Amino acid sequence: MKTLDSRTALALLAGCLASAQVGKVPPALAAIREQLGVGLIHAGWIATAINAAAAMLGVIVGLALARLGAERGLLAGLLLMGTGSALGAAAPDGMTLIASRACEGAGFVLVVVAAPSLLAAAAADDPARRRRLLTLWSCYMPTGMGLMMAVAPLLLQRYGWRGLWTANAVAVAACLLAAVLLHRRLAERAGPRPPPLQMFTRARLTQPAFWLMGVCFGSYAATWFMIATWLPSFAVEHMGYTAEHATWLTAVAVGGNILGNLTTGPLLARGVPRWTLLVGVMVMMGGLGWFVFTAGYDPVLRSVAAVVACSAGGLLPAAVMGGIPLHAHSPADIAIGNGILMQCSNLGTFVGVPAIAALATALGGWDGGRWLIPLLAGVGVAAAWTFRGIERRHDANSLTGSPAATLVEQT
């Protein structure tokens, strides 16, 4: 059986377009600040406004899609993303741009919760294929974001940041058209009807494995996006880079994340515990992230630290996304687990990026704000260590062939 068909290819493409809406902002922040006259903190909210809706709606969307279907969620998400990008292209001021980014954010969360659920359903009878598809899905953020940051300088130079927003709206609209044309085929290949809404109990929302992996993902996302968002302007202002070279540095760092994503599967297959990967990533990112924003060190060393932190950090999203089907008690719980992951990760991004800017402003520079990074890493380490006991019990149940452990094969 082929790994990709029209259904899975569409889900992966939609995810890359969703992450592109995140990646288009860092290279354009300087132009936006100059044209709209916004400050550093306001610029941070523009960068993370897309994450606000995801931070608030992740669990709700997961519950809704478990009942209504991931295909409909994907269509609605693409529509909202395209509309938000088009409105942003015409935004006259910073507040309007933030509002348009919130619209994009609503579409973003629909896409990133629906797409992995579609992928899991497409390989419901083939666990090996499902693992491959979810590994590919874990690359959606660095792939779309990295490609967008690579082409953004060319579009910005020729058409400005409004042209960049317009180009994204057109790309999303094209994907939406393809999704509409394929919708009947997707509906025909969908799985059985999901359970009624009243069957979603409190127990399904309080599965500790989902929330602990979500906390780890949130701590990781906050640090990763701090680096990815502020590195272009930070490298120009404090490391002596030109704007073009700073954007390319960030694109390399973001694109390198794909290597981490693809490395997770082989490490897990060799018997490395999932919780060990989570702890290792948080410790590494806490130390290197702190170093990146530390004054007085060679810019080349700090550039290498940024690339290594963003690249090796890719082990974590692949580990937690692949862990959702394994710890789900039923097939319907996969969408709920994905919603929890997205809510936690986007909450970390939404709060973390402007928080480090606020600390840097209040404490007189990035040397003060950098201490937020190891603090967040400590939270992630604590959650991963707690998850360790759950993972060991799950592995023990799998070895004994308990009914709870075999439910995963039905997903």
TrEMBL record:
Keywords, sorted A to Z: Cell membrane, Membrane, Transmembrane, Transmembrane helix, Transport
From the Swiss-Prot or TrEMBL record, state where the protein is found: Cell membrane
- Pfam families (UniProt xref): MFS_1 (PF07690)
Transmembrane spans: 40-66, 73-92, 98-122, 134-156, 162-183, 209-227, 247-268, 275-297, 303-326, 347-366, 372-390
Membrane topology note: Multi-pass membrane protein
Please give the chief subcellular localization of this protein. membrane
Give all residue intervals belonging to the Major facilitator superfamily (MFS) profile domain: 7-392
Protein name as it appears in the record: MFS transporter
Species for this entry: Aromatoleum toluvorans
